[in-house]
Amino acid sequence: MDFKKHLETSWNLTLKYIAPLIFMTLLMLIVSFFTLGILFPVTMAGYIYSILLMIREGREPKIQDIFSHMRLFFPLLGFTLLVVIVVLIGFMLLLLPGIFFMLAVSFCCIYMIPIMVDQNLGLVDSIKKSYALAFHGEVVDHIVIVLLFIGITAIGNSIFIGTLLTQPFATIFLLSVYQEKLTALDSSEKPKIESTKAT
Predict the structure, then answer these.
(1) Which residue of 158, 170, 176, 178 has the smallest Cβ count within 10 Å?
(2) What is the C-alpha to C-alpha distance for residues 173 and 66, in angstroms, rounded to an integer?
(3) CA proximity to 106, closest of 134, 129, 125, 132
(4) Counting beta carbons within 10 angstroms of the beta carbon of residue 54, is it exposed (0 to 12), middle (13 to 18) or buried (19 or more)?
(5) 132, 127, 104: which is closest to 115 by C-alpha?
(6) Distances (CA, A) of 33 to 22, 38, 46, 49
């Protein structure tokens, strides 16, 4: 995978749409703060959808986009609560199980929300497809993708103002990679489907 190409694309798009991206990121953070994080997963879904349209169609992100996928509120809230509970239990028992589970979720489910908003799939099907994308191609490449996404986001989270720049950049990077991996996965699955029909 050409990481340099994806990073350059992410940087160029971040600069091109810097103002709307900052305002959209700021609103998402404010909404998440005042709802104690309850609306973060569903506003992130709208955020991702807006950036996906920006990448594919050159459509400028709109602030109201973060509320565009409120139908996913309960599935995403339930998934988030489950992950948080399991991670907390892991940390209470021993430190390593909590860390391991958190990394496993990040590794397998990093494309879950993009798939939900892009392909209109349910939670379980999105997790399955995210898992398939994670293991399609070189696993080492996917590990680098996850580490880059987490690393860029963590750097921004250390300073509030930094988040306004690193969150859009990291999200664009992830979605740029998602598009490439999705195209590769669909291309590899098409011959299998056609051969199945032929038999």
Answers:
(1) 158
(2) 19
(3) 134
(4) buried
(5) 127
(6) 16, 9, 17, 21
Residue with tokens 């209109």: 120
Residues 6 or more apart in contact with residue 179 via CB below 8 angstroms: 55, 56
List pLDDT tens digits, range 136-157. 888 899 999 999 999 999 888 7
Angstrom distance (rounded) from CA 112 to CA 106? 10
Residue 188 phi, psi dihedral angles, 5° rounding: -75, -25
The DSSP annotation for the chain comes to: --HHHHHHHHHHHHHHTHHHHHHHHHHHHHHHHHTTTTTHHHHHHHHHHHHHHHHHH-PPP-GGGGGTTGGGHHHHHHHHHHHHHHHHHHHHH-HHHHHHHHHHHHHHHTTHHHHHHHH---HHHHHHHHHHHHTSS-HHHHHHHHHHHHHHHHHHHTSHHHHHHHHHHHHHHHHHHHHHHHHHHHHHHHHHHHHHHH-
Q: For residue 19, give the nearest of 61, 80, 75 by alpha carbon.
A: 61
Contact 61, 24 (CB under 8 A): yes
